[in-house]
Please model this.
Amino acid sequence: MSGAGFTKDMVNSSRGNRTLLKGNASATFNNFDREAYQIKPKKRKAPQYNQASKAYMKQLRNQLLADNLRTSRIRKLVLAGSVITGLILFSLLFL
Model:
């Protein structure tokens, strides 16, 4: 019968794993000490939501628009630089 040795090894290793349990040598898997391994829940504070003033929201909006404008300028410069570099390399190699 093929695999019989493997099955016997599995049974022997499961018997050896009983030492991992909290109990004596004849312990069964049903008396596992779950309380010793439970994770204690963390105590958390409830989130507090504050109302933002209209002036702060206006300032935040202007800041986000300025950041987006700066980012788009950088993207356009990088794209233009890569296109120009590609055209220069193309003209040097093939013309």
